[in-house]
């Protein structure tokens, strides 16, 4: 009995990450690859891939694509590089949860400058109502979601062209709870509110949480706050994906301000996950070292 496929890709050089590169065909039924190698059968569509290479889509483990899905749902910048899955919501920033004050979308950079001219950095936060007024004027639509679940529904309705593994951003949660008054340690009440928002986001479909420990507002969180927030993930088998402290705060700092020791930032996030038992993926991990004497000894 002959196989029947929706799509049959013939004469491709197949690189599957397991076997050596080899010539063959790929049969696709529905949304699944159902046959690879020496494949024969009828198909609704046949693609001659002579001279072309076929391989699984790449996974981008550190993406900010969720900040542009609603503007660029075809995700051209990812797809044209062969990327079909993104782990997004990185560096402490995710589309939700939102409250009265939010980080304005970068797509409004010109409008924000006209609203509040600046020399180096724009206002980190604006009222949601102000952002939506600008959004309506420029794009004809507004940010009408407040939770991750509501955001998921919006992108499902509009459709995006890649797979999306979502993280909830601790920085976004911190802003939702503390608003503009984030340049300090959180209170116990505020910390409990953050933890509830993490529970909610995980139940709504997030696979973990990120932090941006060099960026506002996470740079002002002490380690005990981060440890308690990360501990929430354990119940869900979630992932902790930190942008670790490797420079210290990067805005509104005075000349001569000292830097964080990069090796200490790596040790910090490892210690958090040893204490909590939560899985760790250190975002854009780079070598750790001491920059201030006594320097890092040779290893």
UniProtKB/TrEMBL annotation:
Pfam families named in the record: Amidohydro_3
GO molecular function terms listed in the Swiss-Prot or TrEMBL record: hydrolase activity, acting on carbon-nitrogen (but not peptide) bonds, in cyclic amides
Gene Ontology CC: one annotated term: cytosol
Domain Amidohydrolase: start-end pairs: 45-213
InterPro entries xref list: Amidohydro_3, Metal-dep_hydrolase_composite, Metal_Hydrolase, Metallo-dep_Hydrolases_sf
Identification of the protein by name: Amidohydrolase 3 domain-containing protein
Organism: marine sediment metagenome
